[in-house]
């Protein structure tokens, strides 16, 4: 059985992976669903200083304190940006990286660099407006962007979205790409519908040698189709 760490994206929390985690645990896997600083139930920790390095530390500390080894690291959306720095620090603890509808950043790039320019500018404008200049306010408008269309899912997800630190959008990652490229990697593309903002990230991951799998959901695959997501991850474990 595998050891799996499921990491959520922006404005979410470990709660987003709970349905998939329950399924994988019922099949005998060890599953961790950390919540990044300032998100989900850790929203009280959101400050202007929270950025990419904060979240890298969250994951590297989890791997060390839980003494995890042979880990399949599954990164959703924003969390894909954390891959390079986390792997550089913890390669000996990791077996595989799965980019689940994730952004990818090469050394020197930030999330803002790999998002379409208009999207990155919108985040900056939102932060400059209601976000006091340092956070992107969470609103239900993001549900449409992520193709969360089921009314029951909207009612569950919308109230749980949390403001996201702008620093995590603009911080560039700095890491040696060698350890990441040495690990098996899979890019899991969601296709119903795809998220155009991910096109460049997926292309970069595939160009760097990642395998390619697809799932017919919108961006929040783990909530839209927990069974299908768990089945696909199970095939990779």
List keywords for this structure.
single chain, 237 residues, alpha/beta, six-stranded parallel sheet, two-stranded antiparallel ribbon, 12 helices, 16% strand, globular
Structure report:
- By secondary structure, this protein is an alpha/beta fold.
- The protein has twelve helices and eight strands.
- It has helices spanning 18-26, 52-65, 83-90, 111-114, 117-128, 141-145, 151-157, 166-170, 177-182, 199-207, 221-224, 226-236, and strands at 3-7, 30-32, 71-77, 94-102, 135-136, 164-165, 185-190, 211-215.
- The strands form two sheets. A six-stranded parallel sheet has the order 2-1-3-4-7-8, sandwiched between helices.
- Helix 1 (18-26) crosses helix 12 (226-236) and helix 2 (52-65) packs parallel to helix 3 (83-90).
- It is globular.
- The model has no long low-confidence stretch (mean pLDDT 97).
Gist of the model:
The chain is α/β, with parallel strands linked by helices. The chain contains 12 helices and 8 strands.
Beta-strand percentage? 15-25%
Secondary-structure-derived class? alpha/beta
Rg value: 16 Å
Largest sheet: 6 strands, parallel
Please bin the fraction of helical residues.
25-40%
Order of adjacent strands in the largest pleated sheet? 2-1-3-4-7-8
Quaternary structure state of the chains depicted: single chain
Would you report the number of β strands?
A: 8
Q: So how many helices?
A: 12
């Amino acid at each position: 059985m595998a050891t799996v760490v499921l990491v959520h994206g922006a404005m979410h929390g470990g709660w987003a992976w709970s349905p998939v985690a329950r399924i994988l645990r019922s099949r005998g896997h060890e599953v961790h669903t950390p919540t990044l600083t300032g998100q989900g139930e850790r929203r009280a920790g959101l400050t202007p200083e929270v950025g990419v390095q904060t979240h890298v530390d969250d994951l590297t500390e989890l791997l060390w304190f839980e003494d995890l080894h042979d880990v399949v690291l599954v990164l959703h959306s924003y969390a894909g940006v954390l891959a390079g720095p986390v792997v550089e620090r913890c390669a000996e603890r990791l077996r595989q990286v799965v980019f689940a509808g994730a952004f990818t950043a090469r050394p020197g790039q930030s999330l803002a660099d790999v998002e379409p320019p208009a999207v990155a500018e919108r985040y900056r404008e939102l932060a400059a407006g209601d976000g006091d200049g340092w956070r992107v306010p969470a609103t239900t408008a993001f549900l449409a962007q992520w193709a969360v269309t089921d009314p029951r899912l909207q009612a569950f997800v919308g109230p749980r979205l949390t403001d996201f630190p702008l620093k995590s959008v603009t911080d560039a990652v700095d890491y040696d790409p060698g350890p990441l490229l040495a690990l098996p990697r899979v890019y899991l593309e969601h296709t119903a519908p795809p998220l155009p903002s991910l096109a460049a990230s997926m292309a970069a991951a595939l160009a760097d040698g990642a395998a390619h799998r697809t799932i017919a959901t919108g961006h929040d695959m783990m909530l839209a189709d927990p069974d299908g997501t768990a089945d696909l991850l199970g095939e990779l474990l």
